[in-house]
Amino acid sequence: MGLASFQQAQGVAVTVILPLYRTVRDEAPDLEPVGPPIRVPLGAKVEEARIFRIAGDAPGPRVFFVEHLDFFNRAGIYGEQGQDYPDNARRFAFFALASCLALPRVAPGPVLVHAHDWHTALAPIYLRTVLADEPWARDAFAVMSVHNPGYQGHFGPEAMLEIGLPVELYNWRQLEWYGKVNFLKGGLTFADCAITVSPSQAVELRTPGGGFGLHDTYLALGDRLVGILNGIDQQVWNPTTDPQIHARYGADDLEGKRRCKAALQRSYGLPERPDAPLFGMTGRLVQQKGLDLILASRQLLQEDAQFVFLGSGDPRYEEALAGLARAAPNRIGVQLAFRDSLEHRLMAGVDLLLMPSLYEPCGLTQMRAQRYGSPPVARRVGGLADTIENEVTGFLFDPYEAAALEEAAFRALATYSRPADWTRMMRAAFARDFGWEPSVSAYIDVYRRVVARGPRA
User: Fold this and answer.
1) Do residues 418 and 448 share a domain?
2) What percent of the chain has pLDDT over 90?
3) Contact 352, 374 (CB under 8 A)
4) Please, which of 46, 260, 358, 435 could form a disulfide with 348 given CB 3.0 to 4.6 Å?
């Protein structure tokens, strides 16, 4: 919603369509239906979609929801207890097709459909195949965004019948990928343009090591693959005004950050040591985030420093971090119940942020950390390379090895031990501008280029 809100603020007429998950009902109970139900032909069965919107005239983009109780009124989004739902192919195919069929109702006139990741990647395909005889579909443009290329939507060949697409599309140029249906590959193939979330990521996707098996597809896009850096809402992530942190502070008054550090140490049950460097990590506890490197960095973990971890994910990482905390309760703390407010407090309280990612298409955490005067220690990949200036606003390393992470972390500790140099680095990080405004202008430029070229056949 961040991109959509800032696009709307710059004069783009934006309509957002989302599944009506159970959590939406919890957060936005005041919904109203929009027109009669829509019949969605999906393979051998016709499903029914109801379209809702938030009641009232709230500022910002118009937001609509697609309801299907069997598909979306579930405890999880993609699955439960670490397992994907077995009908995910059909669930997200239904959402993509229902969203397309709803367009004349929620966004009349010529439209540019901007689909995001594999979950919506069938939308450009439906527009160009199943719906190709509809005048409104022929006039539509389609842009595909890739936020996390490691997740592509792989399903067995039988999914072609379940999702109602012609079986002729199951070929190596379009939807087939090593004997499976690949939703993301199909979306990229049929889209008028593809966007990924950082310039460096756009380069990496074209390489065998960074394309996750789709590098040939990305190469075939040519200049229709563009990297545009994500942004953050700098009104929300601003330590001088943030109501969710223990004390507010800024580049010219760091006393509040010292108080935030003490409050964070207390909340994790750590001794209040203003002199001890405090490392933090927040996010999904999965392999992508480089947890294997952290767990293998024994010398760093035994250093006279403190570490706090916030997030949930793979049980093996949760258990490993909990074991570290039990072994060193005065130096290591873990909270496995993630909430947005806790991330604000972590950003304000830590001295350094750990982001040793295996890959990172863009990343938002490193931007937020710099805005809070907490230099990141990060691997030079994707958006991390584009947003962290080595030895100026953070510390970068290259090989995906524990020794490389430790070398960067000890460079950071050496700088931390020199108060004047550390304060200078904090202030340089404070000054970084990670707002959405430049990115929105780049998106609008891409949209104009797509419209000028005309829809692909």
Assistant:
1) no
2) 89
3) yes
4) 260
